[in-house]
């Protein structure tokens, strides 16, 4: 379960938070990548029609083997309609590690 709190501090522009979680093994290699989670859009401080802060909960499920091997989580966040090119490339590089680690289990 992922419990998020988002808050927009901009007076005029809203916040469209996106979150992706990468599970890492003891050697720092990515062994699982969550789906991208899209938080509820938060309005700017001067927007009287949309709350500027709030919580969202998401259910994510990794394979049991990931749960057994994971020692830490890396959380990526962005305020866009996606992860953004730089952050997405970072996640994809972790995904290459995931494929290599999963090959050991297959």
UniProtKB/TrEMBL annotation:
It comes from Schizopora paradoxa. It comes from the Eukaryota. This is Uncharacterized protein.
